[in-house]
Amino acid sequence: MEIVYTEHLKLRMKVREIPFDYPKKILEFPDKLFFDVLGGRKIAIKKLKYGGVFKNIMIAYDVCSDRIEIVTVHPISDEKILNRIISGRWK
Which long-range contacts (CB under 8 A, 24 or more apart) does 13-22 make? Predict the structure, then answer.
């Protein structure tokens, strides 16, 4: 299946200085998977080196019939992950 980087994702990667291969790595080998009930998107998280230390990096993506579109990427703390699970936003 084709993996598509949206324009928004490319902009976020540039602004946040996230390496180009990280979204694909996170998608293919996630540590955690969720569904964002509020946003209606799938979420994948992986610990990767970012800013000299290992951090959780999150992607939000959509699965279409012929492709996967990765929409955004950003670092996320363990606390924020837990809060989204507890609130029921992430299943």
Answer: 13/73, 16/73, 16/74, 16/75, 18/50, 18/57, 18/73, 22/48, 22/57, 22/73
**What is the pTM (predicted TM-score) of this model?**
0.94
Task: Residue 68: give its domain's CATH number.
Answer: 3.30.2310
91 belongs to a structural domain:
no
pLDDT in tens, 46-83: 999 999 999 999 999 999 999 999 999 999 999 999 99
Residues 30-53: pLDDT tens digits? 999 999 999 999 999 999 999 999
Distance from C-alpha of 77 to C-alpha of 2, rounded to nearest angstrom: 29
51 falls within a domain: yes
Parallel/antiparallel/unpaired status of strands 32-36 and 53-63: unpaired
Q: How many domains does the chain have?
A: 1
